Amino acid sequence: MKQKIINILADLRPEFDFNEDVNFIEDGMLDSFDIISLVSDLDSTFGISIDGVDILPENFSSIAAIENLLKKNGVK
Amino acid sequence: MDFVFKNKRISGILTILPKKTVKFEDEMANYSFSPAKCMKLKLAMGYKEHRIAEPGQCSSDFCKFGLQYMFDNNLIKKEDIDALLFVSQSADYYMPPTSNIIQGHFGLKHDCLCLDINQGCAGFEIGLIQSFMLLEQPAINKVVLMNADVLSPKVSDQDRNSKPLIGDAASITIVEKSNDDTTIYANIKMDGTGAFALNIPAGGFRMPSTAETAIMEQDAVGNFRSKNNLVMQGDDVFNFVQREVPPMIEHLLKQADVDKDWADWYMFHQPNKFMLHKLADKLGVPHEKMPANIVENFGNASGVTVPTCISYNLGDVIVNGSSKLCLAGFGVGLTWSSVLVEMSHLMFNQIVEF
After folding, report:
1. Residues of chain A with C-beta less than 8 angstroms from the C-beta of B274
2. Which residues from B are below 8 Å from A when comparing CB atoms?
3. Cβ–Cβ below 8 Å for A52 and B238
4. Per-residue H/E/C for chain B
5. ipTM for the assembly
6. Per-residue pLDDT tens for B185-240?
7. What is the reported pTM?
């Protein structure tokens, strides 16, 4: 799951290294529209529909946060 | 707040669209995104083109054109109009009410209640509920509900949050008493603590328009707009919609004691395709039962999107037959509202261009 997330992020914003231990939102690596693109890509990649109420910046601030979000939405 | 109505019907819908079409690609150079990211925005949100009024065209002009069309085609008689409702955020003047101007323009009878309602994205549902309430009065048998907005002049060309989706349009809906024994269910909710999630800061009495309010300023994500322009806190609006709309619809269905399959169509306000698909998924409604093609083809004209959605997607289906509809609007106010109604054998349901 982790590698798939990194691949999606790298495709979305190739100018950043998403392996770094940083906050993607606070460090300006993802804006609100990037999050929408990311949700669309995660939905199609993992065959889910992330709940709209979970589309909050804090759920996309790190790889771990995104993994937790996917687990919450049924990805194993 | 829940509402129940009996012996009322919607008997006709006319949607009036500007002739001028502007394509997303024609405007994207104004945005701070790269061309590649703009195209991703287009794809995710479902932006293709939108209808924009010509300079000088006001909301009331679209209503006058539509009403004249209806008189000319014998779709309604002047003397039958007992109430004239104008639901809009783009009135002609602070005073007088735009509904009075339209009444005077056509020389409608003095026994005609004219009422302006300042509402936006939920304006069709609010207008319907108001119409149904007026029809409880013995003196009122037929209401003309006008939803209209020409807000494109208030949106900055360099605001990618709002410019790609804004549309101008009007609709005229005939609502009248009926012997039909079906029940119409509706609800309205409001939260003024979120009033400034969608707003135009300057131009009212609180902050009159001046040379200073016209100065363009850059926001944190690269959009340029002045205080005379519409501003939308997109994240706040998105979260509000995802949090509040699904439980509202669940409550409405429960109130009517029906399940989701009862509705043939979920005709919702049209902010963008992404938001609508998320709502459909949350509600467990197939995407094809919740059309998202109005913002794509015509833009988001506030309270006019739902009647446009009905006219564009159903057309003669509800003239020759009937459909069960769940309507929902949500946005400025904050206001969110829904209506469960069967539309059957309308006299007309069509789109005209002005």
Report:
1. 36, 39-40
2. 33, 37, 40-41, 44-45, 221, 234-235, 238-239, 241-243, 274-275, 277-279, 281-282
3. yes
4. CEEEEECEEEEEEEEEECCCEEEHHHHHHHCCCCHHHHHHHHHHHCCCEEECCCCCCCHHHHHHHHHHHHHHCCCCCHHHCCEEEEECCCCCCCCCCHHHHHHHHHCCCCCCEEEEECCCCCHHHHHHHHHHHHCCCCCCCEEEEEEEECCHHHCCCCCCCCCCCECCEEEEEEEEECCCCCEEEEEEEECHHHHHHEECCCCCCCCCCCCCCCCCEECCCCCEECCCCCEECHHHHHHHHHHHHHHHHHHHHHHHCCCHHHCCEEEECCCCHHHHHHHHHHHCCCHHHCCCCHHHHCCECHHHHHHHHHHHHHCCHHHHCEEEEEEEEEECCCEEEEEEEEEECCCEEEEEEC
5. 0.88
6. 999 999 999 999 999 999 999 999 999 999 999 988 889 999 999 999 888 899 99
7. 0.94
